Amino acid sequence: MLTRARGWLATEAGAPDPRQRQYALLVVLAVLAGTVAGWFFEVQTPMLLGALTTVLALTATSGQALRSDLRRFMWLTPALVLMMAVGPMLTKVPVLAGLAVALVVFGTGMLPALGEHYRIGGQIFAAATLVTTTTGIGNDQPFLVLLASTLAGGLFALLLRVIVGLGDPGHATRVAVARTLLTPGPGVLEGAAAAWRADGSSTWLGQVLAGSARFRAARETLLAQAQQSDRIEAERLREIVAEADKVAAELARAVRSRACTGLPMAARRDPAQMVVARGGRQDLPDAVAGVNQGLDRIRAAVVNRDETPVPPAEEGALKERLMGAVRAHLSFRSSLFRHALRCTLAVAVGMVIVLLMRDPSASSLLLALYVVLAPAARDSMTGALERTGGAVLGVTALAILITLLPGAYLLVPLVIGGMLLNMPRLRAEYQVVLGCLIVITVVDQAMTLDRPLVNVGISFAANTAVGAAIALIVGYVSYLVLPSSIVPDVRGAVRSTVWSVSELLRSVRASGQGADLPKALQAANVLALRRTQDLLGMPALLDGTGEETDDNHATRAAAIALDALRQDVSTLAFRPAEERKVAVPALRSVDDLLGGKSTAKIPDIPAGGAPASELLASSLVENALHARQAIDRTFGYDNPWKSYTISFVRPERLHIR
For residue 317, which of 161, 405, 508, 574 is within the disulfide window of CB 3.0 to 4.6 Å? Predict the structure, then answer.
């Protein structure tokens, strides 16, 4: 634990990080001061609401560079503060409380279609709604007191975020961009590109991303060619890739640094020439040139560091993408819609039971219900039984601890302090957020109830079990009512997803060659979004069906790769016409790969143009290579890169119904 804490408080080089130490010190002092003030001045509830607002606001709005986090903070935190203040008032009008919870749960359940940060923000807002409208915390306080405490919590969250990021506002963006040189696999480049755009789209980081995209595409091409070659040639190609990875790691270190006056020798080496110098064949595949072009572009960008922003995409692109997401998922054909509806139905049933019980110890019922059902991916009931057992046993153990431990109220500031010091984990694991909120609400309510603690503990454990049971029952019944399938057709889902992405790809390619197909392009985008989102939920459905190992892993890899490819093609669809024209060779190559051809080579992508154009074109090739390998594994082909033709049966008409 001490080693982990020292690592968290240190920079990458191992030196003490003053920003993290200031943050940790301020958190510890604030928790101590709030605990003392709440105890002596009897303002525990306002202090608790303010602390919860701080934790939830930071969790929902942090994770990127300071500029993008503050932009997200300005539109999300006011809504969060208002809900934390108004929620306790809604408990006095049960109908309004139930309606607010249902609307928030359904709306936030649909937000994953818009992106990762929307998903996290929606989940945190749903958790805040459940805590304030169902647990009774703060319903004995005047509204102005609630508003003042939650507003103070929001402002303190802003102070903490500024303290961490003010010294180096773009640190998170540089780390995300540098990760593209260190972490292979689909989706990495898209996440880094999103962070770069949100942080102002500086030219030098865009050039690093463009170079990294070309490097990654060439790297994957070499690995694919190694699978198609004899043993000696395959070993030589893998050695080139290994040497290139070492050079990329040195460049990643330079990208992460705030300034660079020059590159070390290890970052300026030619990986292919090092392998050739050891002996063997002198001729090199064309993809090696792509590796060197990518590395050269990164080297030039890192040293020069042009901070001028890259021009944004043409107006209307964001609107088109948002409208496409809405059209794709407001349908029973969308697994995301079905899961949001499933959560809403379960919460509605739980709200009715809570209102009928009129018992403060029922505060854990809805939170336990949400722990069981909400983290599941779309149509999945994966891990529901495990989460049910964990929730019931956890609350039971907590009740015993409260009964036996003197000063159990101190658990509340300890949990809040731990949450503030573990923001990355809270953002990555939603069930941890809900679990911590259950601990806080159970301890707070147990201390305020005028009943023997043993009876209180039994009540909390029983109500938690009721909530978990409701989640399981509603989840199972919804499978029988909603149009979903308990036993998934993995290969059929992959075929329909590949077909939909291919339709989108061909529409974009046709528009890049001069065709005017706005309606067909929009329809193809909607269908591809729905299909990839459905496939992303497929691996969770496989759990517990006896297919966990190879099928589960291959399906997950195919889903991530095809979704990353869909993101690239969808972004390209709404970029200027000249960028679509630049990407036509890449689109043609990707179409061949998805169709089953065995050609693995770098297409003729023009270099030296706009960073966004080259980034998208090269990323298309990389994700297509990942997708092709995952498709091979999903369909059970023993011989990688075997030339075949998939018969893509058209599963539905292109127009969206």
Answer: 574
